[in-house]
Hints:
It is a single chain. The protein is about 55% helix and about 10% strand. It has about 350 residues and is an alpha+beta fold. The protein has 3 domains: about 1-35; about 120-230, no CATH class; about 235-340. A 4-stranded antiparallel β-sheet has the order 2-3-4-5, covered by helices on one side. About 35% of the residues are buried. The model is unreliable at about 1-5, about 35-50 and about 215-235 (pLDDT under 50).
Amino acid sequence: MNNYLYWDYKKLNLLRFNFLRNIFVIIFFVCTNSCNSPKGPFTFSKSYDTLYVSEKTIDKMSTEEAKQMYIDTGNDIYYRRFSTYYIENNFLYRLISTNKYEKNDYNFYFESFSGFFPRLKSGILCMDSLDKITANQLISRMKAAAEAGDGISNIYLAEMYMDGNGVVKDESKAKELIIKATELGKRERIRREKNEIYIDRYGIKYKFIHDKIEKQVDNNSTSSITTCCIQPFADSIDQRKICRLGDIQAYKRMKELYKSKGVEREVIFYSIVMANRYNYPPAYFDIYMCLWKAFNGGKKADLWDMTRFDIKSKEFAMFYLKKAVVSGNQQAREIIMKQY
């Protein structure tokens, strides 16, 4: 009789175990599905990244939905959904990612302008080819990236200090940045042996011995800032006309092209070129509108409403909005008056 009771008790425990296991599976399934939602409850407090977003959820999204989710959440999985080879199209979103979410992508300014403006034969963007405003914005962001621990930014800055390209020539500072880059693991073209450091980038070899720098340039390359620049390749005639000539009609055609594709806000790269380099008055207001459309996309908001802007993006937008007012833009003046 006791044996029967023992087996009944064992079966009861097994039933209890199966029941609890099934409950746990159901709870886990519900929680997982809620996390899969772009508006899931589990987020990181600083960057607002969703903890987990399934690839299937992303694949079902349209490109525009992914772009807006990236602006709203800063989750890189959305960026991978829409990013393209054309860096000027990604400029707006990389600008927001560094301003709003403090992502260490500050050298995107450098990469973007390198594709359209002359470079030294070392491959480094020639800072003399840029206007003062753009050069200052680029250098400040490059320094921020280097301080944040980006190895490649340290290398770029070091090469700028070596040649005095946009900064005061300082070989000791260059060496300091190169050593920092090696410590950060950026060793693709760097070789370090005791007190000597060798760098080979685009045909130029730098040899650091204690506090001295020896530069060796091969026959096919040079580090001259004034005489030897590589003219970058641009995909279209209008791109070349905008960046090199400040052609107003080319800029207007580019705006119409972006508008016809439903991505008018992404013209911001060319607006910055026209504003900073060629002082084209309508471009100042265009920059403000590109950012306003990015932060208020698909939402009801007045043109002066900047409540969805982060602090840095708001400062960036206001800088150009005030320039638009000074240039005589009436709509910009009305927005400023509404804000104050």
